[in-house]
Amino acid sequence: MNITPCSDNILIESIKAEEKTKSGILLPASSEKERPEQGKVIATGPGKKNKQGVVIPVSIKVGQKVLFSKYGPNEIKVDGKEYLIAKEDDILAIIEEN
Fold it and tell me: Residue 82 above 70 pLDDT?
């Protein structure tokens, strides 16, 4: 199935937090899991219209790794896989790895 977000919505595949601490301690599966705050952009909408009716394109690009507000995006399930849909305003930063 192909999903194309509308307006300034962004489809995100969440990146699960590592189950091992930096010091190498494995976290048990029963440990409390928080909602992820990072993800990979799968698709973006065309953008949001301003008052004059001109579409302002989304500045986030497909494939970028992003940091988003914890409870901003909505969860959806498509073909058994979970995704998040967020407004462009919910994206806090683009993560660039060196």
Answer: yes
Coil, strand or helix at 53: coil
Provide the 10 A C-beta neighbour count for residue 86: 22
Q: Which of 96, 76, 78, 55 is nearest to 88 (CA)?
A: 55
As given in the structure block, the two tokens for residue 83 are: 């995704």
**CA nearest to 41, candidates 98, 94, 2, 92:** 94
Q: Which CATH superfamily is domain 1-15+35-64+90-98 in?
A: GroES chaperonin (2.30.33.40)
Calculate the alpha carbon distances from 78 to 3, 30, 57, 74 in Å.
9, 26, 25, 13
| pTM, entire model | 0.79
Distance CA 38, CA 15 (A): 6
Phi (first) and psi of residue 39, to 5 degrees: -165, 170
Q: Who contacts 92 (Cβ-Cβ below 8 Å, separation ≥6)?
A: 66, 67, 68, 69
